[in-house]
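re: that chain from earlier
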Amino acid sequence: MPLALLALAVVAFGIGTTEFATMGLLPQIADGVGVSVPQAGNLVSAYALGVVVGAPVLTGIGARIPHKRLLLLLTGLFVIGNAASALAPNFGLLFAARFLSGLPHGALFGVGAVVASRLVAPDRAARAVSKMFLGLTVANIVGVPASTALGQQLGWRSAYWTVAVIGLIALVALALFVPHQPRGQLSGIRHELRAMGNRQVVIGLATAVVGFGGFFAVYSYLVPMLTHLTGISDTSTTLVLALYGVGMTGGTLLAGPLTDRALRPTLYGGLALMAAALVTFYFTVHSTVPALITITLIGAMGSLITTPVQMLLMAKAKNAPTMAAASNHSAFNLANAGGAWLGGLVISAGWGWASPNLVGAALAVAGLGLAYTGGLMDRGGPRSETITKSMGPAETSTAGEGTEHQRT
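^ sequence. v structure.
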């Protein structure tokens, strides 16, 4: 089990590295393919678009493929996309390669979360999922700064080659350590789409888009906030972003056991505390030490939300959790785009560099309202279940005898 979770964490590490490394290498990429820096910024959007499209489409296509085989196919596509990024001779092909690289992102996290939850006892499922997500947070501490430094010294293509190698290592680890998990009779695109129509799944995805939009409203403009208001030099911002990653790692470590114990209270608390931290940052951003402490807390609260949302969607999707789990990452990328857009609006309106914090806090409170609405809808009805043990081919739609469940 630990080696299987480690293999999934390596996949998450590679995804986190390739998703954010492009942002740190935009000047080098722009020079390399002969475009302006703002035009090169469209490569970030290309990757995000790939995530949004790929999560439901690829999980739908692979709805009847056993989970281990699907993980291997998706990781192979991830390697191909990053190798194509490294080889792209011009901006058009690089744009297409970044879109290709983003396609397996959400599906890998969705399938990986389902696999991780079924490797352990039901009362430890969230801890297993959070351990996979640790790879993503460690990427913010180690992978992104290292790949950025490598790309600056050896050329931007070397960063994508490095990610492709990480993908190959993950591919081997998955093949060796992840056990086979057969699909049950309830597998298939029809069952996955039916689960996506569940009102609680829709509310859960809306919570992710709106609530996590508050996180990205601030994260997107963190560097200019630090340089314009806190007085931190450009050369030191990388270290501050690593500190942000430390907070995210701490939040992920807390999220697993807390979600296993009390899913909805963990989600409510994470959103409420993130709103409070963002309002606090509006006032502490002008002073270095309080600003750094608040940044760490914002990172922690952002990660504290991720695991309970993931587990909630898997619970509400019941016997067909894969597409819902994958679509969570489409929701996060929509949150990234929407939060950054709203944060940019208030800056452009002349409200000041600190103003995205207030926008972020408002979005976090709105996300809390959505989450609480979902909780109210659960009252008085049957409690939902997420299957934490693969269903055998003879089991029926009611989840046959011997199947383990986690109740939320």
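The domain at 186-408 is CATH 1.20.1250.20 (Growth Hormone; Chain: A;).
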